[in-house]
Design a protein that fits this description.
The chain is α+β, with helices and mostly antiparallel strands. The protein has one domain (22-149): Beta-clip-like. The chain is built from 3 helices and 10 strands; from the N terminus they run ββββαββββββαα. The chain has helices at residues 55-60, 124-130, 137-153; strands at residues 22-27, 30-35, 44-48, 51-53, 66-70, 73-76, 88-89, 95-100, 103-108, 119-120. The strands form 4 sheets. Strands 3-9-8 form a 3-stranded antiparallel beta sheet, with no helix packed on it. It has a 3-stranded antiparallel beta sheet with strand order 4-6-5. The chain has a two-stranded antiparallel ribbon with strand order 1-2. The longest helix is centred in the C-terminal third of the chain and has 17 residues, at 137-153. The protein is globular, with a radius of gyration of 18 Å. It starts with 21 loop residues before the first strand and ends with a helix.
Length: 157
Amino acid sequence: MTTPKLPKHTKQPPKAPLPKGLAVKRSLAGLGLFATEPIKKDTRIIEYVGRLVSKEEEYSSRSKYLFEISKNKTIDGKPRDNPAGYINHSCRPNCEADISKGRVFIRAIKHIAPGEELTYDYGKEYWLEHCQPCRCPKCAARRSSTKKSAHSSAVVK
């Protein structure tokens, strides 16, 4: 059985299957992971999975999907192999990562409605290195209102 070729403009779907109730869609940051059905607060939604990398690999890697789970253990969770890798940063997240027995699980910290993007706070160090300017809805709205007020105050009288 052969896999049909997708047109070049079509994004490749993740190799790993998505859990029921989730979909990869366009977001402010590119692609994101979205709820397709309601998710209750404290629900364990998805596991962040990937190849374990050594400290040496971690420091030399160009991957933006490294998740440090202990001082000796890091996961490289590229999105095609790890649907949780599509979860974007937000300064007002609706999820958080729970590390338990060397595994990373993404848990809802509030009710998530269908159509809402799943997000968690990547942490200050990662944010400073990779997320500036922040593209989460909260920060995008703040930038937009700052531009509007700067534009309106620059009107010549």
